[in-house]
Each structure stands twice: as structure tokens, then as C-alpha cells.
Amino acid sequence: MKKLFLFLFLWTSGQANAHQFTPTYPQLTQSHIEGVYKTEMVLFNNRNDIEYYGLSVFDAEWNPIRFASESKVIPMNYQERKYVNIYIREKDVSSALYICSKSKILKNVKDPSIVASRICSKLK
Amino acid sequence: MKKLLFLIPTVACANAAVANIPINGVVESKCVIITDTDGVYGNPTADKLSTTAADGGVVPIIRYDIITADAYKAVVTTPNSFSSSPSLDDVVEWTSSTSVGDQSVAEMSAFETNKVVYNNGHTTEFDLTIAGTVWFDVSSVAEYGYGKAFPAGDYTALITAECIAQ
After folding, report:
1. What DSSP string describes A8-34?
2. Would you say the ipTM is above 0.90?
3. For A1, which of A20, B37, B70, B87 is 20 to 30 Å away at the CA?
4. Is this model's pTM higher than 0.80 or not?
5. Is the peptide bond before A23 cis (omega within 30 degrees of 0)?
6. How far apart are CA B143 and CA A8, in angstroms?
């Protein structure tokens, strides 16, 4: 019986669908381009129902801030980890506060109740 | 002599056994959002879709792993419209709630006490002041018109689970 519970626990814990976005408190540093600052974020997709994540940058009032990255929508395979550089103009550095990643759900997904996950790191 | 021959490799092995091999690891501060249980709408009456078990639904459960206390707040927003559904020509009334379910630390019951609800009850904010794992249960009920039957078809609604660094 104990073995059955252990098996069920291991089986169900292996089903986890997780979204991670780190670090919690990234720091902007001067990039190779003058007047542009950058930080590196790590995105990990352990959600097998999600193939894309969107990136965004906000100020303290959640107004969007212009930024650049390799792509603003990142295609992610299941259990894939990606390093993403976020570039912000020097004039926006003082107002930029949050860097967020949000799962993108495809229109053809027909699950009755879907969870969109968003994680926001705070610039220090 | 035989004993000496036996002793030499034994001592050599004993010396090798004391070598220390370090394993280094870093657990960084992070918040992990895990969709634990997908919700399902039950259809107890023609005009109602509900995730509660009493109505034949399945309550969606979202798990948050909190590595560092006081680093994040959790924000859960329940649906106030269908992301896909058959054509609806009448008003849908939405009611919902988000509450703390299971928890890895008993003190996490404070999350429930201190939660802040706004956006007509659709958004609930929890201060993640204790490290560990917490599961949030989300209920969502949609009622159509004045006792009007929902048209047949697939209905999909979206819950947004957020982790915002503080």
C-alpha cells in the first residue's frame, strides 16, 4: 500500500506544469551599445500546454516601457530553458521597474478552464 | 609477508577514501507558478456553468512555490468573459472566488486572512510572506441571462495567475 502511495506521489509530482522567470531582482548594466542598458533573464518552461511566452517591461504604474530583445514572443519547448537579454534605453532606465513574462495560449486550445501564468521580476 | 602485501593496498584505499568531492548548488530566489489541476465547468442547470464540485465541476488549483519569503505577491484573476464560446446574445453574470487551499506551512493560513479582493471580486492578491508551497483554489460560476439556457458548444475561460516581485 505504501508503495502504491509513493508511486502515485511520484507520478502526480511528475505532472507539474511550471513557469519560472528569474532572477527576482535583475540589475541593469551598460550594454555594448552606448545609451542602452541590458539585463539577462532566464525563462524556464515546464508547462507542456504552453509553447510561447511574451515579454514586457512596465513602470511603477504598470504603463508599458519600450524595450528590445531578441524576440518579444519567445517560442519554448517543454522543459526548455532560455537566456533572454532585455535592452532598455538609458532615458527609460529610471522609470522601468518590472520585467514580466507571460504564457501565451493558442486560440485553438479548448480546455474548459485555462491558466495563464505571468511572473514579474523587479529591477533594482 | 602476505599480511604486509594485504595491508599496503588497504592503507592506500583508506587514503583514497578521504578525498572530498564538493557538490555545489545555489537555490536562487524565485516564484514558481504551477497549474496543479485544470478546472472543468459543470452544467448543473441549463443556465449555469460552475467549477464547484457540488455542481459537477472541477475546481482549478494553482500551486505557488515560494523560495524566499516577502519577495513576491500572488495575484489571481478569475474570468469575467469566455475566451471562446458559442455566440451569446444575452448577458453572462460571473461570480468567483480564490482561496488558500492546501499549504506546506500551517502559518500560511495568514495568506487567506490578509488577502485583498478587488475588481468586483475577480482579482485576489496574496502577500507571500512565508516560504513554502501553497495551493490556491479558484471557483468560477457563470449564469446566463434570466434563467436562459446556454447554447450547446465548447466554453473556455481564462484564469490569470501572477507572481509580482515586491
Report:
1. HHHHHHTT--EEEEE-SS---EE-SST
2. no
3. B37
4. yes
5. yes
6. 37
